[in-house]
């Protein structure tokens, strides 16, 4: 791994690299939607027009917008994901995402690099000590893009068209990319999440448990005990990172899973409600409507119509 400080990359060089990466993404993602790539951690997104807010679960990852823009809502926090910035999600967070700038001539183009906490932990001992630069404990944040981060992403994108080279060089570039993240503006945030014993890591463990047991009754005292925190501390730090309480987080998990089941046509509304942990179908329908803006069947019909129109 060659050490190139961010200052090495002039504004002209950064603009040139962004232009090349944008062109490669447009070629690799010729149609709208999410596209997997030959490197499992890397996926691409394209939208040719603006859209409506869509609820989604953002996992730990690095997001880079090359063209167009998305607006992302986490709790009461609003983030604009646009070129010249990068987004880092440190833990699983339920968000509302909307493409707010896109056209057929200039589609919204983004890439996402999935982050592996274990690989981050393995790299931490080799990262130079740095002063904490976090402005908040939020699980999602946006920072200005620098050349040190853009460079390995561009080189990885180039290797997507050279499979034999990708197998050998991909792991080295991924390691460099993680190093750049850890030594950048959001490095302290990622280090805290990955460090065993830290409050951020304890909240990450609580999130993992909720994702695995979202359909079970939630007892805050028991969850706090599982992650070795007091109930009040769990509430405070959980809200700081996810912008919601553990109960609100569980509700988001339940509603999004129910929506997935209904879209897949795997069951009716009452069965979906029961599968995700609701005892009352009427309560489920009320909360579904508040969250997604329409009752379950009407919402699913609208989503299917949007999908059909995008395919057409």
UniProtKB/TrEMBL annotation:
Question: What keywords tag this UniProt record?
Answer: DNA-binding, Transcription, Transcription regulation
For this chain, one GO molecular function annotation is: DNA-binding transcription factor activity
- Domain HTH araC/xylS-type spans what residues? 204-302
Q: Which PROSITE patterns does this entry report, sorted A to Z?
A: HTH_ARAC_FAMILY_1, HTH_ARAC_FAMILY_2
InterPro entries in the cross-refs: Homeodomain-like_sf, HTH_AraC, HTH_AraC-typ_CS, Tscrpt_reg_HTH_AraC_N
Q: Which residues form a coiled coil?
A: none
Q: Which Pfam families match?
A: AraC_N, HTH_18
Q: What is this protein called?
A: AraC family transcriptional regulator
Q: Which organism is it from?
A: Dyella telluris
Q: What is the lineage of its organism?
A: Bacteria, Pseudomonadati, Pseudomonadota, Gammaproteobacteria, Lysobacterales
